[in-house]
Structure formats: structure tokens, C-alpha cells
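Action item from last week, closing it out:
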Amino acid sequence: MRPETEADLAKLVAGLENPVRIVGGGTRGIAGPYAEIETGALRGITLYEPGALTLVARAGTPLAEITAVLEAEGQHLAFEPMDHRGLLGTQGEPTIGGVVAANISGPRRIQAGACRDFLLGVRYVDGRGQVIKNGGRVMKNVTGYDLVKLMGGSWGTLGVLTEVSLKVLPKPERVATLSVRVRDAGTAVRVLSTALRSPFEVTGAAYDPDAGKALLRVEGFAGSVAYRTGRLTAELSRFGEITEEAGADTLWAVIRDAHPFHGQDGDVWRLSVKPGDAAEVSARAEADQLLFDWGGGLVWLRVPKGTDLRARLGVFSGHATVVRADAETVARLGRFQPETAAVSTLTNGLRAKFDPRGLFNPGLMG
């Protein structure tokens, strides 16, 4: 099912009798035993005001189309959404609706915020087939319930996005990446934490154990970047050898897309933890491969197929999400961290209000 307009989508949903899976570009590998509603026909940028740093696009608009339009004006999506295709081996094109629905956010989240922090407004069709609009085209335009933030990260379980309004930002004049040679994950986290606590506005903080490097990104006007990288080099020199890496854009795309795991056997998980816990928790994971982002707050792990990583970790403060595994493993373990009883009561109540017939992506989030 591929509705051509928002009105067609609303009519389609109103007449549904069975659950459906919501699909944008089909790049995130979410499968299920249900018929699909594809949003790819709901595409096109409906408003772009570079001076107001505002862009409005229909949900099925390819992310590449938006990136190209922004690039022509020297602007970008500051939350730098991940491209899952290499990691998951999927086809298709990422869409802006899929990015928003999954709250896909890259390395700059530590400084600029997540995708939902750039959401100004949304339009969506709820489980009754009603078209709902919330928010607007400026940051302070929320009255009543902030459904905009709620839809970001709901994975299509509350409604089918049809249009999103986003704040965009100018691209930085210069990007520099400092590489600090470190001996282990604990040292890497100390390096990343020291840099993030500094006043030098680090916009990327990652650790690649295979390379033995902690990576720090600094962006902005050329003079400011030169000053801040100089100060950071002096501040961090006690930890190890520091060099400036070339090809910053490519390097951070590698981190963003978990590129070291591409083409490697095994299941891929991501942990959201307190950065200070990253080294200890990842050691308990006994993973075949690791990658830290967000100063250690995001840990990518590759483990043997079928591994119950949550059982291996035991009790920890955070969330463990299956990103890549076969259907049997996902069905057995659940994609997302199991909810506590209190949270489950809250989320079930929300779904009952937004999707009373249980139509959208049932079972995906618990």
C-alpha cells in the first residue's frame, strides 16, 4: 500500500482491519508479518527558508535530496543522521520521515542535540485515520502537549508521519579532528570526558579500539578552531601522542555509520550508557568488536550470532538495543530494552490514545 497523498493515507488507515508495518525507505531492516504502508510517495520539500534556518518536507522525501538542497546554501542537518545501509546490508533510500520516527542522531548529538531537538512541527495520521498537526515553523511555537518531541523516536507506533518541520544550521567553516593515542578503553573515556568538560566546544568524541585512538572533533570559524585545537592539544598531551587527522568528513561518517562493522559476521548491538560506565560495561560484554561514540555514551558491539547480550551484561544502568540480528534472535530477545512495569503502563496508555486499534508496528517497541 503506497498512498499518494496525506488524504489518501488517512482514508486508508481509517479503513484498516489488520495491523500494518510502516515503511519509509526500508533501510533500517525492520521486518514483520504484516502488510506494509509505504510513505515514499509522500515526498518533496514544501518550504525552505535559509534565512530563517527552517525546512519543511514531506515524510517520504529522500534524505539525500534534503542534504543536497541544504548543501547548496551552506547549511546542514546538524544532528547528522546515520545511514544504516552498510551496516544492515539494506537497499533503498533513507527518508526524512524515517530519520525522525527513529530519532536517528549522529556524533554531533553530544553538542548540538538529537534529531528531536531540531523538530519544529509534525503532521501525521493517527490510528483513527485523523490528520493531526502539532508545532510549527519556529522553535517556540508549542501549545498544549508537545507531540512533536513524542513522535520523534516513536518508530511509527503512534502514527504515520506525513510532514516534518526542521531547524537547520550553517555548516562550519572548518572542521578539525584530534587523534589521541590511547592504550585501553578506560584511558580513552578519560580523554573524551576531559575534552567534553573543557570550554572548547568539542562536537565529536569517539574511540576506535582497533586503531587505538580517541578522536575529538572541533568545528567553527578557522581562527577559533585553530585556537581551540591548540588548547586541547596542550590539555590532553599527558594522555598520549596527539596528531591532527586528515579527511574529517570521511572520518566522522565512518564513526556515524559504524563502518568498522560493515561486512563483519555476527550480531550488532548498541548500548546507551553513562559515559563513565562505558569501559566497564563493554568489558563485561566480551564483544568481538567495539566502537564508542558520544564520549562513551553510545557503545557499538559486535557479538556472535544469537548472543543474548543483556543476559551477558547483567544489571547495568542503560539500554541495550539489537540493531542487526536474524529474525529468530530479534523475536526471542526483543529489539529494544524491556520496559519497566511503570514505563510499560505509560507507553501502553499512550498507544491506546494514539492508535486504539493497535494497527501500527505492533510489538516493535514492547
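Closing note: The CA atoms of residues 42 and 60 lie 5 Å apart.
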